[in-house]
From TrEMBL, chains B, C:
This is Dihydrolipoyl dehydrogenase. The lineage of its organism: Bacteria, Bacillati, Actinomycetota, Actinomycetes, Micrococcales. Residues 9-320 form the FAD/NAD(P)-binding domain. One of its GO terms (cellular component) is cytoplasm. It comes from Flavimobilis soli. Binds 1 FAD per subunit. FAD binds at K55, G118, T142, G143, S144.
Length: 60, 461, 461
């Protein structure tokens, strides 16, 4: 399965997606990219954020 | 006045300037009931005594310069003089159209506008002319006033921007005390209108908050325009008589002029409004708030110039929107102060967003910062406009662009693009991949990013 | 001429215009050996007969308008006339400075410049004045020429942009055939210079490639400026004599004027250059290429106006850079044609990037497209400039902004921001989160995105 792109140096994401990730507290490097050329898409970030939220709720 | 006895609003906003009316408009949009208390005119400083009237003067100044310099473009133009009554009528016309529009907005969004002077008398209550206006939340947005220096009294030939905006003549000569945004803007206007202008700044540079490269370039440009200035020498005193003012600096240097404009910054309008009595923390008059603009007291928030930081209208808008959304439970992302664009509308214009080179080195370490200057000499449209200047980029090495700094005629409009780049954490490569329209000035931003990405097109390696 | 016998270059570029010189500069930067063959002057149409000289004329026109209309700003200005010799000197001055800069760049990057007329004589060879220049790769970038219509002969009082740019007088009256970019730009210049202008366009609208909202707004603006136009009625014929031209349309309508400018588009300069003989496919003269700008023959690529699509200098730059990187093996991302910004520099300016509303509906379905218009009436800076117009956004419902369309004085500079939004597939919310500098024109872009995100600030819901 695809790996998070973090180790590849710069994580590829369109700039607004970069900002969205920051606003949602998502570390882009931990997101598995599904876009063309290993680019992290908006959907990837949103999906990651919703999973992260689910996890943190579950630990309460 | 609207009769509000017995009503409790979701939000009561004190002050109808940029910060206050933005809060009110956004809150109303989100379905909250809002009272907006204003003792003067909705729109506040920015619309009536700040941004808008100064930019109207600056445009009239541009018109005058254009007519003065038409020959270099082959156009026989002539400047016969400045009709200050006409300039003021134009300026008032712009204000009144925008004011009408704003009043219409406030009304159509069903904001309850309460006219009068308000004071905070309880954590949930503002008193206006004896009437108690209660809110589940209170937003303080009482704005700012033109400050002076200890012992420097405003009056007669010693004026602030408030009086300067209503002059019905062009002074023959002016000393401008303060080389910040407001000071250099007035200096620019008056020079274009034909006055002899001297700017006096105590710090080592004009526009001292900007990246030093911009300050130096503005100084060069002012020198070329014949705007005199003195930096790094503090104001000592002024005397005035029927003939004019006599200004002395600490070094003993002195200047005579018809007028002294005091433009040494703006102080928060927070005295005698009951803020401290309710437990709100003030620091040199500014309201201290947390990241969410909450004062730490009850449900009281603050927005605009009374909050320490950049005193800009659009920061007020942003904070107002933020507070409204925060109260409505939308959990908005906090505003990053350095991401707010800054424009100084003198000629040439100065514009920036993000951090300066010096600040970046402080944040990331001197070895982790890379900068690039792209000269407008290589930019076709700037050549056509006969302007000089440059774009300076600051990036984190192998990281995003963290600062965009520009100087040149009309570059203020390029900051829209600059702010997306900085706030969206774009890499030079992201911008370099997009070809800019030829021949525009924004192409200079494109070229600068191409160069920073290691692939300059119209620039030497 | 440089003696290149025996050398084989990594790339030989035929034509030193925007497309060709960008290829050469980028390739040299990437360490490839490059020959650039040019029969005229490096810089091509754009620098010598296109973008730059027209924009210089348009700036002189703006200066004239400013001097004509100073009174409304309270500035006593006067326009005493246009000195075409002076205008031309200014224009030539701008060109020659930029030309010198470009020559310096070509030299410093060690591009071998070969002066002369070249022909493709083998898949890897261009012949110039009997000399064979061989390249591992060939890039064709021979550009375009001003087209005419069948039976419409250029000469005397019937001119194209080539002659129009060198007129040493302001015509009393002009008929402009063609309401596209070049036509409306010249119409705008001449009107500002005092001529009576009539634009004749066979399609139903001026600037017919733009979103219909922009076309209609430009027509209103031209009407207000007193620029006459006729649309939806095709050219039938013209006669000329010592007094002027007599132009007739298919409907029988006719116009008399001192001059007829033919601005009906530009044809590819590909005839008699040996292209077909080497197996290259031409379609109506244009060179057919794949997504990677490869012709399908040997290692022959094409860039610029000879490739079907937008005929813009910066598209030429982008294609040139692309081809160089492709040849160097960098595997660059293909250029998205609709993401290239487009600016028409007439007064008011027209600017757009991305797709029109009509095109978006075609692509995504009529129900999946949302649009928004933000009127510059609510924009302080536009009020100060006394301009009208609007920003129109097109988005995919619940998706990104796919088109930004603008009209108004100086809006061409806002397209830099527009192109980031469209090409980076920003959502309205992404832009709405960033407060724009007040009072700027780019603030109108911010307000439009706020409104499209459902949270208008200075606009009614
Ligand atoms: C000359 C000048 C030029 C400027 N140019 C620019 C520019 O180009 N761009 C830019 O971004 N910024 C500019 N500014 C700054 C800008 O005007 C301020 O940042 C902005 O107005 C701050 O908004 P605010 O809502 O905090 O305060 P204000 O606009 O000052 O509004 C406060 C309002 O509260 C009302 N008020 C105060 N106390 C009470 C009370 N007790 N009861 C009832 N009502 C009360 C006041 O009447 C006022 O209307 C300029 C300022 C000046 C002076
Ligand atoms: C009036 C006018 C205004 C314009 N305004 C704008 C504008 O504002 N913005 C914009 O983006 N675009 C504008 N354009 C379009 C722009 O000029 C072209 O898109 C651009 O020049 C195309 O670049 P190119 O390299 O394909 O061709 P060209 O610039 O035409 O260059 C081709 C070069 O090849 C040379 N050449 C041709 N054949 C040979 C041969 N056989 N041997 C040797 N050399 C040869 C020619 O001498 C020429 O220098 C304008 C065009 C015109 C006419």
């Amino acid at each position: 399965r695809p790996e998070p792109a973090a180790h590849a140096g710069r994580v590829l994401a369109k700039p607004p997606v970069r900002k969205l990730a920051r606003d949602l507290g998502v570390d882009l490097g931990s997101v598995v990219p599904t876009g063309p050329g290993e680019i992290v898409t908006r959907e990837d970030v949103l999906e990651f954020a919703s999973r992260a939220e689910g996890r943190s709720l579950a630990t309460y | 006045m609207a009769d509000t006895n017995g009503t409790e609003f979701d939000i009561v906003v004190l002050g109808g300037g940029s910060g206050g009316y933005a809060t009110a408009l956004r809150a109303a949009q989100l379905g909250l009931s809002v009272a907006l208390i204003e003792s003067g005119k909705v729109g506040g400083t920015c619309l009536h005594n700040g941004c808008i009237p100064t930019k109207a003067l600056l445009h009239a100044a541009e018109v005058a310069d254009t007519a003065r310099e038409g020959a270099q473009f082959g156009v026989h133009t002539q400047l016969n003089g400045i009709d200050m009554a006409g300039v003021n009528a134009y300026k008032e016309g712009v204000i009144s159209r925008l004011y009408k529009g704003l009043q219409g907005l406030v009304k159509s969004r069903k904001v309850t506008l309460i006219e009068g002077h308000g004071r905070l008398v309880a954590q949930d209550t503002i008193e206006v002319d004896g009437q108690q206006v209660k809110g589940k939340n209170i937003v303080l947005a009482t704005g700012s006033y033109a400050r002076s220096l200890p012992g420097l009294e405003i009056g007669g030939r010693v004026v602030t921007s408030d009086q300067a905006l209503h002059l019905d003549y062009v002074p023959k000569s002016v000393v401008v005390l303060g080389g910040g945004v407001i000071g250099v803007e007035f200096a620019s206007v008056w020079k274009s209108f034909g006055a002899d202008v001297t700017v006096v700044e105590g710090l080592p540079h004009l526009v001292p908050a900007e990246d030093e490269a911009l300050s130096k370039a503005l100084e060069r440009a002012f020198r070329k325009r014949g705007i005199a200035f003195s930096v790094g020498d503090r104001f000592a005193g002024v005397t005035q008589d029927d003939n004019g003012v006599h200004v002395t600096l600490e070094s003993g240097k002195s200047f005579d002029a018809e007028l002294l404009l005091v433009a040494v910054g703006r102080g928060p309008r927070t005295a005698d409004l009951g803020y401290e009595q309710q437990g709100i923390t003030l620091d040199r008059g500014f309201v201290i708030v947390d990241e969410k603009l909450h004062t730490g007291v009850g449900n009281i928030y603050a927005a605009g110039d009374i909050v320490p930081g950049l005193q800009l209208a659009h920061r007020g808008f942003a904070q107002g929107i933020f507070v409204a959304e925060q109260i409505a439970g939308l959990n908005p992302a906090p505003i990053v102060e350095s991401g707010i664009p800054r424009v100084t509308y003198c000629e040439p214009e100065v514009a920036s967003v993000g951090v300066t080179e010096a600040k970046a080195k402080e944040l990331y370490g001197a070895d982790s910062v890379e900068t690039l200057e792209y000269n407008l000499g290589g930019n076709g449209k700037s050549q056509i406009l006969a302007t000089t200047g440059f774009v300076k980029l600051v990036r984190q090495k192998d990281g995003p662009v963290v600062g965009v700094h520009m100087i040149g005629s009309r570059v203020g409009e390029l900051i829209g693009e600059g702010q997306l780049i900085v706030n969206w954490e774009a890499y030079p490569e992201d911008v370099a991949a997009l070809v800019h329209a030829h021949p525009t000035q924004n192409e200079a931003l494109g070229e600068a990013h191409l160069a920073l990405a290691g692939k300059p097109l119209h620039a030497h390696n």
